[in-house]
Design goal:
Helix content: 25-40%
CATH topology of the largest domain: TIM Barrel
CATH class of the largest domain: Alpha Beta
Number of domains: 2
Oligomer: single chain
Shape: globular
Structural class: alpha/beta
Radius of gyration: 19 Å
Number of helices: 12
Number of strands: 12
Distance between the termini: 10 Å
Largest sheet: 7 strands, parallel
């Protein structure tokens, strides 16, 4: 049974965390944190998401804070570094925040950027990693099929591990997958899983080789584990620019899945210039620990959102809680 709104409100704290650099078009990350019987939990759908989509994130927050979770199979999970759509000259500085990471996810297809800029960025990452490092590119659905094929044929020389959400729709992904079969670059689906009415549709259509799985957008650890079991495809457990509290949810999800061959996208605390924990889940030797994270009162106060933004989030919390009924 879900806790009532007043119970969620009792411990709700809204924070606004600065980013090291612009990412996903934002410079601060807002999140609402709550403490349930199981510990701290996070509700942080992006501000542009409507209430119906955001309610699934609240389901995940309640699940993590109020419901006992599965025992982890591992104490650490390997994570990738994330390179935003920066100039090639800035790549080395970004990667320095991810010590020991052998895998790098590179943002491409940024609005207003040319393919040549993506190529230069990926080339710089390859130079930093060396031939043994793993590079995955993430277009966030920003290419059409023709542009995606052209871009991936150009980027293929850098030995890509996979291409994440190169096109927006399942139909486009299936078309692209056929077109680039000769390249041997797997297609990973992210938005086609977490933002879809049916998160398994992309797997049934054979439009992806890998699924990107995120605990918050899919309704929590248990819901995400069911999708993994039903999909029958390899998965990459990732995050949505969470605080370390939200990342701890993703880490527990990753550690509860028996076979995870790909490094997880859970190193994104390195993109934050501030966090809510005195012991944030920053990558060390390419890994983060699997543990619950305690939010620290001093940091909750330091990064507290303005009264106006706090009221906005609390109103959103109440609306989404009603939707769960």
């Amino acid at each position: 049974m879900h806790p009532v709104y007043s119970e969620l409100l009792d411990t709700a704290r809204v924070v606004s965390l600065p980013l090291v650099q612009r990412f996903r078009g934002i410079t601060v990350r807002e999140a609402l944190l709550m403490r349930g019987p199981e510990g701290w939990t996070e509700f942080s759908p992006f501000v542009e998401y409507d209430d119906a989509e955001a309610a699934t994130w609240l389901e995940a927050a309640i699940d993590f804070g109020w419901v006992p979770q599965p025992e982890p199979l591992r104490t650490m999970v390997r994570v990738n570094a994330t390179v935003p759509a920066v100039e090639a000259e800035a790549v080395a500085g970004v990667l320095a925040r991810y010590p020991g990471c052998r895998t790098v996810k590179v943002k491409v297809a940024e609005r207003g950027h040319a393919l040549a800029e993506d190529v230069a960025r990926v080339s710089a990452v390859r130079s930093q990693l060396g031939p043994e490092g793993r590079i995955r590119v993430d277009a966030n659905g920003g290419w059409g099929v023709d542009d995606a094929e052209r871009a991936l044929r150009t980027l293929a020389e850098f030995d890509l591990e996979y291409a994440e959400q190169p096109c927006a729709s399942v139909r486009e992904l299936a078309n692209l997958k056929e077109r680039i079969e000769d390249l041997g670059i797997p297609i990973a689906a992210d938005e086609s899983v977490r933002k879809a009415f049916d998160p398994l549709a992309v797997a049934r259509a054979g439009a992806a080789d890998i699924l990107i799985i995120k605990a918050q957008p899919l309704g929590g650890i248990s819901a995400a584990r069911r999708i993994v079991a039903e999909a029958g495809l390899p998965v990459v457990v990732s995050s949505a620019l969470d605080t370390s509290v939200g990342l701890s949810m993703g880490a527990l999800l990753a550690a509860s899945i028996p076979d995870v061959d790909y490094d997880c996208g859970l190193g994104t605390a390195a993109l934050l210039a501030g966090d809510v924990s005195a012991h944030p889940l920053l990558p060390v030797n390419g890994t983060i620990p699997v543990r619950r994270v305690e939010a620290r009162e001093e940091l909750l106060a330091r990064y507290a959102a303005t009264p106006e933004r706090t009221a906005w989030w609390l109103d959103r919390l109440e609306r989404c809680r009603r939707l769960l009924d």
